[in-house]
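Narrative of activities, Objective 1.

The group set out to show that a structural description can be obtained from nothing but a protein's sequence at a throughput compatible with the screening campaign. Below is one input-output pair from the validation batch, recorded exactly as produced.
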Amino acid sequence: MTQARSAEPLAVAGGAAASSDDAAAGAAAHSPHATTQPASLIGQIAWAACDGARSPYNVLVNIFVFAAYFSTVVIPDPVRGQTVWSFVSSGAALLVAVGAPVLGAIADAGGRRKPWLVGCLLLGAPSMAALWFATPHMGSGLAWVMLALVGGTLCFEYSNVFCSAMLPNVSPPGRIGFLSGLGFSLGNFFGIILFLFYLYAWGQSAHPLFGLDVAAHEPERAVGILAAIWLVLFYIPMFILTPDSPATSRNIPQAVRDGLASLIHTLGRLRSYRNTSVFLIARLLYNEGFVVMMLFTSVVAAGVLHWTPPMLVAMGLLNSVVATISGLFAGWLDHRVGTKTATMLFVAGCLIANVVVCSLTPDTAFFVKLHAGTAAHAGGLFPGVPNKVFLVTQNLMAFFVTGGLATSRTLMAKLSPRDMLNEFFGLYAVSGNATSFVGPLAIGIVTAAFASQRAGVAVGIVFLLAGLLLMIPVRQSEPSPPSGGRG
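Output recorded for this entry:
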């Protein structure tokens, strides 16, 4: 789940990004702006590396390391920490929801994308590096750290819009799917490299690299700097080696007007395809459940079970492997049982995993209180039954989320009219961003109201169950044309 809005397969994590990346790749294949002069092989690889280089920020900051540090150490009260983290995530997602359609319209209009990516880099790299200043038990200055988190997330999401929009011009038509997949794969690979580096440099080292003070939580503060360095490191080759999309005569205001008008027109036509409409609403709901579970994984682990950074990094490393396996399994399951059934199985699996997570405390598993010796029994990096149950459950969750994202994209392709693939995949992407702030906001409200992290995360159950129930009437069939009745 490394390339997603914290819900993308670790491979994909926080949040509408997972679905927006998937949809952008699908829509790109039908873009009217593809040129006949693709980039050289080295230029194509540079683009894929640039696409994957966004992922370390998502996994290191939004999902595993910094999120836990912020919500339990920067803000020492875990309940308040989860509440604040929820509101920051919701605020950033709201800005993405407002800005993504406008930037998407600009990207769809063609024209140069590199200047916009430079802007994303200039916003994102300093914001990511500024997380170093998030000190333990922080009082004054907390607002600046929260602003830096928003800036990093906006860079992660907005850069996806323009990076994806380059794909039809960068790749030969027959390699678009391969190159898009390569970007995802490199995102996973980069995440694994940095997880291993963290464990080697700071997690298990008697002499921490660069003289960082583990007791002062400096390694957790440094992950933003790592993400910023990685971003710059792989953006520069793309700027040099990959040709930009050709300029067009359309100006930005015109592109925004035309793009938003097209979106409104597509929404109007969607009424003629009831089956597809129901799926989009169902997917919007269960996608929020996916986001809730991935975005708050480390927050719950650190706040409820008191996990350490090495434990969280090890879990992230395992998640990257599990997500890769899930992507392959999703294709097999799709073929065996059908896309709709496969999607529902993945959503149901994530729902069960969410319930299990809510059942855990340091001395409780599956809502059953354990004997003190059983709960605290020594056993490697993850001692005790609750820790082991959480580790297994969270990896299953990563498996289900990744698989669900993959089959959802396939189902969208099957339910979309053949002559409207670009429009419907665009709508698929927008719907992933439009309500992406709702899940984190709901968690923040419920956590604060019940003064409980477990109650807050239980919000995911509501989204997943609602989406699963709404999937029942969806028919996996080719859409009928508007004149032939509803699809």
